[in-house]
Amino acid sequence: MKRILSLFLIFVMAVVLTSCAGRKDSDPADDAPYKSPAPPVADASEPAPDSAEPHEPADSSTDETGTEAPSPGGSVLVVFFSATGTTRGVAEKIAALTGADLAEIVPVQPYTSEDLDYSDRTTRTSAEQNDPAARPQLVGDISLNGYSTIYLGYPIWWGQAPRILSSFVEGHDFTGMTVIPFCTSGSSDIGQSDDTLAAQACSGTWLQGRRFPGDVSEDLLMEWINETTDAYMEDTMHLYINGQEASVEWERNESVDALTALVSSGPLSVKMSPYGGFEQVGPLEASLPRNDAQTTTQAGDIVLYSGNQLVVFYGSNSWAYTRLGRITGKSAAELTELLGTGDVTITLALGITG
Ligand SMILES: Cc1cc2nc3c(=O)[nH]c(=O)nc-3n(C[C@H](O)[C@H](O)[C@H](O)COP(=O)(O)O)c2cc1C
Question: Is 109 strand, coil or helix?
Fold first, then answer.
C-alpha cells in the first residue's frame, strides 16, 4: 500500500530543486507587480482573518504539543509563521508526528487585527504583499545548524507567502538541507508560493509544498510526511564517486531532466579522467539539451560541456557550460583528494542504491 502511495506521489509531486542561476531573476512573482487574487473565500473551518487578535509570539523552545520534546540538534526542524494561530496548529502537529524541533518566525512589528483585515486594501499586509521588495524584520535568529530537513509553514496572503517568509529564507543558508513547504489558507492552494521561496532562498533542495486546512487530521499529515519522504528518496538522482555517495543540489533545468530520464532506466556509470588540474571529465552516453553560459566554476560544481561531457570540478575554470548541479558538504580540499589524483567512476542512480 505504501509503495502504491509512493508511486502515486512520485507521479503527482515534482521534486523542486533550487537553481540560483536563472531562477531567481526569472521568477514572475519577483519581477511582475503583484496582482491581487480574488478575495479569499472564507472557509468555515478557518478563523476569519479580520477577526484575528494581534499575534502573541510563542517561546519556540517550549514544547507546546505536550509530546516528548525532540533532542536538541535533532535533524528535523519545523519553522512556521502564523498570524492567527492556524498554521501554528498544523506546525505543532507535524513537529509532534516527526519528533522535530519547532521554531517560530516572529515579526519585530506584530500584525494587528487591523493589519490583517483583508477587506481593507490600505492595510499593512496589503502594502507588503503588493511590494515584492518588502522584507519585514524577524525577532532574533532561528539557527538551522545541525538540521537536515526543514518543514516551512506559513499562511497564504493574497495568493502568496507573507513577505516575512522571504526575509527568513533570504537570511538563511539551506545548503545540504531538504526544505518541505506547507501552508494554510481560507481556500487557496499553495500556488507558486513555494517555488518563489525556493528561488529566493537560492540554496537547499526544495520539495513541492502542500496546503492544509487548519483542522487537518494527524492521519492525513502522517500520510503526507511518509509519502514526501518516500518520493524524495525514490525520485532524486544520487551521485557516487567510486561508489561513495556525494550529496548534490541539482539545478532545475531541461538538461537535468534529460539526465534524470537517462538514469531512470538504470544506474549510469561514467568513466572520468582528470583534466587541467581542476576537473574530472567523462563522456555521457547521449547528448543532453544544453543552455551554455559563460561560467566561472568552483570546486563541487557539476556541469555539462559540449552537450555530452559530464564535468565535475575540484578547482575552478571559466568557460561556457550548462550548469547541472553542485556537490554540497565537501570542502575544496576534500574534493581535490577525491577527484584530483587519477581516474574515477561517477555513477548516477535514482533512489538509494547504497
Ligand atoms: C492579509 C490576508 C490575506 C489572505 N489571503 C488569502 C488568500 O489569498 N487566499 C486564501 O485562501 N486565504 C487567504 N487568507 C486567509 C489565511 O490564509 C488563512 O486564514 C490562514 O489559515 C491563516 O493562517 P494563520 O492563522 O497561521 O495566520 C488571507 C488572510 C489574510 C490575513
Answer: coil
* d(CA 85, ligand 1 centre) in Å: 11
Q: How far apart are CA 151 and CA 100, in angstroms?
A: 9
Q: Whose CA is nearest to atom 2 of ligand 1?
A: 157
**Domains in the chain, ordered, with CATH?**
7-235 (3.40.50.360), 237-350 (2.40.100.20)
Pocket of ligand 1 contains residue 160 by CB under 6 Å = no
**Which atom of ligand 1 is found nearest the CA of 85?**
25
Q: Tens of pLDDT along 315-342?
A: 999 999 999 999 988 999 999 999 999 9
Q: From ligand 1's centre to the CA of 148, what distance in Å?
A: 29
Condensed to tens digits (0 to 9), the pLDDT of residues 257-286 reads: 899 989 988 999 999 999 999 999 999 989
Among 189, 185, 169, smallest CA distance to 177 is for 169
Q: Which residue has the higher pLDDT, 32 or 313?
A: 313
Whole-structure pTM value: 0.64
Q: Which of 112, 157, 215 has most ligand 1 atoms within 8 Å of its beta carbon, as the pocket-test mutant?
A: 157
How many CA atoms lie within 13 Å of 226's alpha carbon, on the beta-carbon side?
14
pLDDT at 139: 97
